[in-house]
Write a structure and sequence with these properties.
The chain is an alpha/beta fold. It folds into two domains: 17-43 and 274-366, Aspartate Aminotransferase, domain 1; 47-271, Aspartate Aminotransferase, domain 2, CATH 3.40.640. The protein contains 14 helices and 13 strands. The strands form three sheets. Strands 2-8-7-6-5-3-4 form a seven-stranded mixed beta sheet, sandwiched between helices. A four-stranded antiparallel beta sheet has the order 9-10-13-12. It has a two-stranded parallel sheet with strand order 1-11. Strand 12 (332-333) and strand 13 form a beta hairpin. Helix 3 (47-56) runs antiparallel to helix 11 and helix 5 packs across helix 10 (243-252). The longest helix is centred in the C-terminal third of the chain and has 24 residues, at 273-296. Bound molecules: pyridoxal-5'-phosphate. Pyridoxal-5'-phosphate binds next to helix 5.
Length: 370
């Protein structure tokens, strides 16, 4: 084969896929392993979503509704937007891809933070765009520096709020003054994958920001059903945005980008307020419990407005991650992100949290970290 791949593609490091639990168990000789690494909902999908999906199975010989009519209208009603301001995606990930496809050409600049969600930069690279990467400042987006690097070539700014992996939100006053200083020619994408877990008073008023874009930069909010709604395996997310931006995303998206089961599952999950509220309450309880207990083990943990948090384990994080794997507990090492002594732990069920703490306690002693 002699076909050439362009340099911008050849230099991409593929997103590191996790191994199936069964494979890990075989490799490490453990059983009953638990995954607290991908910020998923440990209480499963809403039973109402499962029921809706079951009922929809007999219709799989048909293409899905390419407009996602019922889900888009349910979201519009719940959130106060019009259907023309909502775009569905195969995960919110796909909406990141649509935004870059629609707005970034060879040589255009996109500003992101490091560390933050890995996919922004990869997708920009696919498109031949230029990544301008600004390090976080004490775990928060460095908005002043981001403003200072905007040029005539800047098209998009991605801000995950709260940030993944730090769990830190942007202070509202800082966000609002930042947005009023960004030029109209730039689109600011607030990736709100974890917004459900934030305290209400810390959540930005994205409705006003999106509706009042006259004379200022456009704002897009990305949301997902993968976290609080427990539907990560279905792949469904959405974006809220000015209708003009939505119109451009419809130009570049696949006609049937969101599958039928994802649409009916998300619609049912959206209506299951009890399950959603219970998830938020259990997540908060679990986070408090884990943070209190981790402190008793002698580790510093960081406050988070998410269903995950960072822990400074006082030694090489990847070595600790490996030791935890041998005990059947999967967490994330933050060493590849530059936080050499930190791990990221996703809140699990009560039983998973206890198992994680027992494993952490044993590993810290074995490795003489505390
Ligand atoms: C900040 C952030 N944005 C987006 C996503 C992607 O979510 P989705 O499952 O909707 O593609 C994630 C997933 O972990 C994330 O952490």
């Amino acid at each position: 084969m002699k076909i050439q791949v362009p340099d911008n593609i050849a230099s991409i490091v593929p997103y590191p896929p996790g191994k199936p639990l069964e494979e890990l168990e075989r490799e490490y000789g453990v059983s009953n392993s638990i995954k607290m690494a991908s910020n998923e909902n440990p209480w499963g999908p809403s039973p109402k979503a499962i029921e809706a999906i079951r009922e929809a199975l007999t219709n799989l010989h048909r293409y899905p509704d390419g407009s996602g009519y019922y889900l888009v209208h349910a979201l519009a009603e719940k959130l106060g937007f019009t259907a023309a301001e909502i775009v569905l995606g195969n995960g919110s990930n796909e909406i990141i891809e649509m935004l870059v496809k629609a707005y970034v050409q060879n040589g255009d600049e996109v500003i992101t933070s490091h560390p933050s969600f890995l996919m922004y930069q990869k997708i920009v690279q696919v498109r031949g765009g230029v990544n301008i990467v600004i390090p976080l400042l004490v775990m928060h987006h460095d908005l002043a520096t981001i403003l200072s690097v905007i040029t005539a070539k800047t098209r998009l700014i991605f801000l995950d709020n709260p940030n993944n992996p730090t769990g830190c939100p942007i202070k509202l006053t800082d966000l609002y003054s930042f947005l009023s200083a960004v030029p109209e020619s730039v689109l600011v994408v607030l990736d709100e994958a974890y917004v459900d877990f934030m305290d209400n008073e810390l959540q930005p008023d994205v409705f006003s920001l999106i509706r009042n874009s006259k004379g200022r930069c456009g704002v897009v909010s990305l949301r997902t059903f993968s976290k609080a709604y427990g539907l990560a395996g279905l792949r469904i997310g959405y974006g809220l945005m000015p209708s003009e931006v939505a119109g451009n995303l419809h130009r570049v998206r696949q006609p049937f980008n969101v599958n039928q089961l994802a649409q009916v599952g998300a619609l049912a999950a959206l209506a299951d307020e009890d399950f959603y509220q219970q998830t938020l309450q259990r997540t908060r309880q679990g986070l408090n419990y884990l943070q209190t207990e981790v402190a008793k083990l002698g580790c510093k943990s960081y406050p988070a407005q998410t269903n995950f948090f960072l822990v400074d384990v006082g030694g090489d994080a990847t070595v600790l991650y490996e030791a935890m794997l041998h005990k059947g507990v999967i967490i994330r090492s933050m060493k590849p992100y530059g936080y050499t002594d930190m791990v990221r732990i996703t809140v699990g069920s009560a039983e998973e949290n206890q198992r994680c703490l027992a494993a952490l306690s044993a590993c810290l002693l074995e490795l003489a970290y505390v």
